[in-house]
Design goal:
Order of helices and strands: EHEEEHEEEEE
CATH architecture of the largest domain: 2-Layer Sandwich
Largest sheet: 5 strands, antiparallel
CATH superfamily of the largest domain: Ribosome hibernation promotion factor-like
């Protein structure tokens, strides 16, 4: 971590055991993602019984990572150590999701375009379609899902994902319109 851990305690008796648990949980977060810039933790007891004991403990975890801030605010829990662990479990899940997004492990949603088959060469195993915006796009029999290449005819309406090919735009994941996957 680039800046030291900040732990704030409000309306709670400050204990070494709670601070040690927070430090242990932060060290575990650094295993999930080693480029944490800073971490601030606030332990709070917003309500108390008449006898002075807390009703529940709130734990707020604020983690700065490159380009984002991960904030976890948990509902009150009657046990201090459980409240800390639950807050850091949630922070760990969010930090893992962030790390997966940064690495590119999470697929981005791809929108499928519509087009019409304009040329078809069944013996050669390829064809061309015209997209809704009027561009001609190549496709190969292996890019047609469910081995439906034989079902295609000139004029068939298809859905496809466009990608950059060696000789220009080409369609991948081609499917007849109306068939969902």
């Amino acid at each position: 971590m680039q800046t030291p851990l900040q732990i704030s305690v409000r309306n709670v008796d400050d204990s070494d055991a709670a601070r040690a648990l927070v430090q242990k949980c932060v060290a575990k977060l650094e295993v999930f993602y080693s480029r944490i810039i800073s971490c601030r933790v606030v332990v709070d007891a917003p309500q108390r019984f008449l006898a002075g004991t807390p009703v529940g403990y709130n734990v707020h975890v604020d983690i700065r990572v490159p380009g984002e801030e991960i904030v976890v605010r948990r509902q009150a829990h009657p046990e201090l150590h459980t409240a800390i662990q639950e807050a850091f479990d949630a922070a760990g899940r969010r930090l893992q999701d962030y790390a997966r997004r940064i690495r590119g492990d999470i697929k981005q949603s791809v929108t499928m375009s519509r087009g019409t088959v304009t040329q078809l060469f069944p013996f050669e195993g390829y064809g061309f379609l015209t997209s809704d915006d009027g561009r001609e796009i190549y496709f190969h029999r292996h890019s047609v899902l469910d081995a439906a290449f034989e079902q295609l005819d000139v004029g068939s309406v298809v859905r496809f994902v466009e990608e950059v090919g060696v000789k220009g735009p080409q369609a991948s994941t081609v499917t007849l319109a109306g068939i969902s996957h």
